[in-house]
Amino acid sequence: MNILLTAGPTYEPMDPVRFIGNRSTGKMGYALADAFAAAGHTVTLVSGPAALPVPTHPAIQTVRVETAAQMYAAAAEAAPTAQIWVFAAAVADYRPAEVAPEKIKKAGDTLTLTLVKNVDIAATLGETKRAEQFSVGFALETNNEQAHALEKLRRKNFDVVVLNSLRDAGAGFGHDTNKVTLLTADGVVTTSDLLPKSAVAQDIVQFVLARYAQYA
Ligand code: CTP
Ligand code: CA
Question: Where is the DNA/pantothenate metabolism flavoprotein C-terminal domain positioned along the sequence (predicted)?
């Protein structure tokens, strides 16, 4: 199968030398790309600026992007021919309304930036999802975690949502280990152990492939 996978942060420029970004390392997304490739599938990895080596597996094609708009364009190109979509990227929700053509010079004591909303890649592609396609999203929540994750599943037309909890020490951003809860529209809830991200990725891939075989 063809897998579309978004990963890493996005960087939203404010001038030629500065951007707004986030702390996503891309590790979980890259581990998922490796796990899908190891399971015999072809992966289009649309990656924001992660400080990770480009995967060397010949079944992984990596497309490097910077901004949410670029990530959307690359994902939209790969989506129609992919059976499974996985949205592991930490996409910036907003970008500076204007990108200054020259470096913004230090002036007053405060600086006010106006931000505008970025395209929601998962939700926009979710509207085009065909019956035989399968969409997997991620959610990182700090409160009412499962309720928020299920709300995202419905809003973005996901078949599976992977919930990252910040409550577990050693899980999430920047760590080499992770612990996730997998939720489906029909109420299946499965929690992984705290494991290296590569092992968690294999568990997620096995779960997604089994669900895909059953429902898509
Ligand atoms: N996502 C996306 N495009 C965006 C924002 C999010 O594709 N512009 C995807 C993420 O890759 C993830 C899922 O949507 O799979 C949920 O991301 P999240 O940031 O938790 O959702 P938001 O709708 O942005 O909600 P929040 O207000 O909690 O940030
Ligand atoms: Ca968000």
Answer: 2-209
Verify whether ligand 1 is closer than 6 Å to residue 85 (CB atom): no
- At residue 165, the 3 state secondary structure works out as strand
Kindly give the number of the ligand 1 atom that is closest to the alpha carbon of 122.
7
Question: Residues 65-101: pLDDT tens digits?
Answer: 999 999 999 999 999 999 999 999 999 999 999 999 9
Domains belonging to the chain, first-starting first, are 2-101+110-215 (3.40.50.10300)
> C-alpha distances in angstroms, 13 versus 7, 20, 64, 197?
19, 6, 16, 30
Ligand 2 centroid to residue 93 C-alpha, Å: 5
Residue of 70, 91, 118, 183 with the most ligand 1 atoms within 8 Å of its CB, for mutation: 91
* Integer Cα distance of 100 and 15 in angstroms: 5
Neighbours of 1 (CB within 10 A): 15
ipTM for the predicted complex comes to 0.99
**Which pTM value belongs to this model?**
0.96
Ligand 2 center–CA 5 separation, angstroms: 17
- State how far the Cα of 113 lies from the Cα of 151, in Å rounded to an integer: 30
